[in-house]
Design brief:
There is one protein chain. The chain has seven helices and 14 strands. By secondary structure, the chain is α+β, with helices and mostly antiparallel strands. It has a single domain, classed as Sandwich (Jelly Rolls). Helix 1 crosses helix 5 and helix 2 packs across helix 7. The longest helix is centred in the first third of the chain and has 17 residues. It holds the Pfam family PhyH. GO terms for molecular function: dioxygenase activity.
Length: 308
């Protein structure tokens, strides 16, 4: 049996201020995660979700993940837009592009990699995924990125509203990134259910206990690519499940000179890093003046999110 974990259910989540990059990085290396409190303005979160609602209502080019399948446009089932779980919204939303490499994220990634980080993909959630405990290490494989150093994979989880057990707060397993573990493609015949069942047993055998991450709007949680985490079960007794709006971003250290490997995508530089953009959306990349950005954000705040 592998070395036992000693962090257990008594583990207390330490929080850092956005300027405490070095201390947060040391904590990340030790525990596999770190949390920055009040790392971005909740008003920006509200504005972004207003834009999400506008995109769902008016943009047929959005991509949705539903029960393991990807849908776009008129082929999207009603549940796809009701959930929703949107893939790569940064190809459509300027506010998403602002969030994925916002200053605390860009600075942390630079400290982690020794160079600017690259956003590989994003997932936008309205509700808890309720996804069982898993590691991202082999699951994040956008074809336009191609092979990359999986040991550099990291994720940020941006709290767009408060989370608790009622709306399915994240469950994290501190220290779980340190021990080797089987992946989805290691003897499970690519059965996600078989993989997660094995991982539940692995966590118990190695003494890992889940810790609930109760977030406030503006918090950013980073986790290591091989860190075990789960979407908490929604425990509210209400017939209408409460929302737990969030933005998940995956990053890696990609050589600066490496372009997209898919002609339908381009690698785009932003202050603090880069990301991958659908080519057909490139017109949205036209720079805005400071006043145009203010007007855009105010307009987004005035929009009512879909389904609320």
């Amino acid at each position: 049996m592998a070395e036992q974990n000693n962090q257990g259910s008594e583990h207390v989540i330490q929080r850092f201020q956005p300027q405490q990059i070095d201390a947060a990085l040391a904590y990340f290396n030790e525990h596999g995660y770190c949390v920055f409190s009040k790392a971005f303005d909740p008003a920006l979160a509200k504005a972004f979700w207003g834009d999400v609602g506008h995109q769902i209502a008016h943009n047929e080019r959005l991509s949705y993940s539903l029960y393991g399948k990807i849908y776009q446009g008129p082929n999207t089932p009603p549940d796809g837009k009701k959930l929703p779980r949107i893939i790569d919204i940064e190809s459509h939303s300027e506010l998403a592009r602002e969030l994925i490499l916002i200053s605390p994220i860009a600075k942390f990634l630079h400290a982690l990699y020794g160079c600017p980080g690259t956003c590989l993909q994003t997932l936008t959630y309205k509700f808890s995924s309720e996804q069982r405990a898993h590691s991202d290490k082999v699951l994040v494989s956008p074809p336009y990125v191609g092979p990359y150093d999986r040991d550099t994979l990291a994720a940020s989880w941006l709290a767009l509203e408060a989370s608790s057990e009622a709306n399915g707060a994240l469950i994290i397993y501190p220290g779980s990134h340190k021990l080797p573990k089987r992946s989805l493609f290691d003897g499970f015949e690519e059965s996600y259910e078989a993989y997660t069942c094995w991982l539940d047993t692995w966590l118990q055998e190695n003494g890992f206990t889940g810790v609930t991450f109760r977030a406030e709007p503006g918090d950013i949680l980073f986790w290591h690519g091989d860190f075990i985490h789960a979407g908490g079960a929604i425990q509210s007794p209400s017939d209408t499940p409460p929302t737990r709006k969030s933005l998940v971003c995956h990053y890696a250290r990609i050589p600066a000179e490496q372009p997209s490997l898919d002609v339908g995508w381009s690698r785009v530089s932003l202050p603090g890093g880069s990301y991958y953009q659908r080519v057909q959306e490139s017109a949205e990349q036209k720079p805005r003046s400071f006043m145009q950005r203010i007007k855009f954000r105010m307009a987004s705040l005035a929009r009512k999110p879909i389904g609320t």
